[in-house]
Amino acid sequence: MTLLRPFALMLALLGAPAAAQTTLTVTGAGTVAAAPDMATLRVSVAREAATAQAALAAMSGAAETVADRLRAAGVEGRDLQTGRLSLGPRWDRGDEARIAGYVAETVLTVRVRDLDGLGALIDAAVGDGANGLSGPEFGLSAPRAAEDEARRAAFADAMAKARLYAGAAGLEVGPVVSITEGPVDAAPGPVMMEARMAGVPVERGEVETRVSVQVVVELNGSDG
Question: In the chain, where are the structural domains located?
């Protein structure tokens, strides 16, 4: 029995779980502002007529005129897309509900890359038959550079927080255990510049790219 005790002790030590490593989870945020180089418009064309066929034909003709005008203004085919098409009755809800006519509508989604001509393009679209407009939504045609810069800023922010918390606890930041990226968001930022074109005031402002990241790091005991 005495000869077996050292062997049993060795097995017990080998089977003992290692001490759990202390970790810290922090969240960092990074925001990068850049001048937009493109905009998205939604242009609607609606027409009403006594019959559904007539309403659809009138709307189709007007929409084609608007699309031709947009192409003539420099909008490329890849930047012009039919986003919605609808046709339905217009009800006269008097003493007795009845169909008073039909309304056909289409919405064109337009990407504008020449922002200097945005105001003139809006004027042209409305003048050639569009009767609805939403936007513009400004953006970046190649957002990756701004996203990567925001990622670096978010990670740096997270690590700065980790070092602050570790120092306050008398510890040091160890290796990074995991990095989890949150949603990447692009939204208009503060207005920084303004241009008035063809009678339509257009404020470009800036596009802010926001990135959040969650970082888990190990914490080590301070040497001091």
Answer: 20-35+143-221, 38-139
